[in-house]
Specification:
This protein is mainly α and 282 residues long. The chain has helices at residues 9-12, 15-37, 62-76, 117-133, 146-165, 167-177, 179-187, 191-198, 201-218, 240-264, 272-280, and strands spanning 221-223, 226-229. β1 and β2 (226-229) form a beta hairpin.
């Protein structure tokens, strides 16, 4: 989202505005998975120390190195000053921006920021990559395209991370809409009650249906004068069921973790007077 477009914070935090961002991210994520699926699994790029000779003693994985190098460049361009961007590399290991800081509107409660990139990296490497590359049998388990595969990994991971961490904007929006509904469950921590307040099963069900339709549509080939068709081998470019399962089993649950963790810390640093004022707002 363009946070410096002179929109007021209430507009940026409206659920309709947030929803439009999340729907666009669905497209980004599906297309990034399609791009990754064209290469073999290349499990070696996820093994710590597998490239230590090539990378002069680097003990992490090829993907770890790729993420750090990519995020170092992005950090210089102040990407991680944006309130919706969170790097996989610790911020302490990234360079400072070379550009002056932008003035972002106050949107999130700083003390509540939660980062779950370690969990995203784990499910992506161990479950999603093997699943989406399984149909690419012609490439075998390793096709040597380590740079191309890691490039697509970074694109997919950054989009998935942004999607999950955007849950903090959902929490802030719903909290500001009715602070008095949340405050009792924050003061006497009740994660289950907080999750119930932000969960809408019908919306989640509609999301999964929409995702399957998009994944099947985007996974086809289009010709100017012909109906869309599957790839020559009769398969979609990415397994639609894997996309749905990723959202159902990982993206949605991790988003809820982020949302609830954010809410549990939403009153941190506030005075009793500030909390009472929030309660009076309804």
């Amino acid at each position: 989202m363009n946070f410096t477009s002179f929109l007021v914070p209430s507009s940026l935090l409206s659920l309709s505005s947030i929803r439009s961002v999340l729907i666009r991210l669905e497209d980004t994520i599906i297309f990034s998975l399609i791009e990754r699926a064209q290469f073999a699994a290349n499990a070696r790029i996820y093994e710590c120390g597998a490239f230590r000779e090539d990378l002069k003693g680097w003990e992490g994985s090829w993907l770890d190195w790729f993420l750090k190098e990519t995020e170092s460049f992005h950090a210089k361009a102040r990407r991680y000053q944006s309130p919706d961007e969170y790097p996989f590399t610790p911020l302490s290991e990234l360079p400072a921006p070379v550009l002056p800081a932008l003035s972002y509107p106050p949107l999130l409660h700083g003390a509540s920021i939660t980062n779950v990139n370690d969990k995203i990296l784990a499910f992506y490497i161990h479950d999603i990559v093997p699943a989406i590359t399984a149909q690419n049998a012609a490439a075998g388990a390793d096709d040597g395209n380590y740079g191309s595969a890691a490039t697509r990994d970074v694109e997919a991971l950054q989009a998935i991370s942004r999607r999950i961490h955007y849950g903090m904007f959902v929490s802030e929006s719903k909290f500001l809409e009715s602070p008095s509904s949340f405050i009792p469950h924050i003061l006497s921590p009740n994660p289950t009650a907080l999750e119930d307040l932000i969960t809408k099963p019908a919306v989640e069900a509609a999301l999964l249906v929409r995702l399957e339709k998009k994944a099947r549509l985007y996974g086809q080939d289009f010709e100017a004068a012909a109906a869309p068709s599957c790839a020559p081998n009769g398969k979609e470019k990415v397994d639609a069921e894997t996309v749905v399962r990723m959202y159902r089993d990982y993206v949605i649950p991790l988003t809820k973790v982020v949302e609830v963790e954010y809410l549990l810390k939403r009153l941190d640093g506030l005075s009793e007077a500030e909390i009472e004022e929030l309660q009076r707002r309804g």
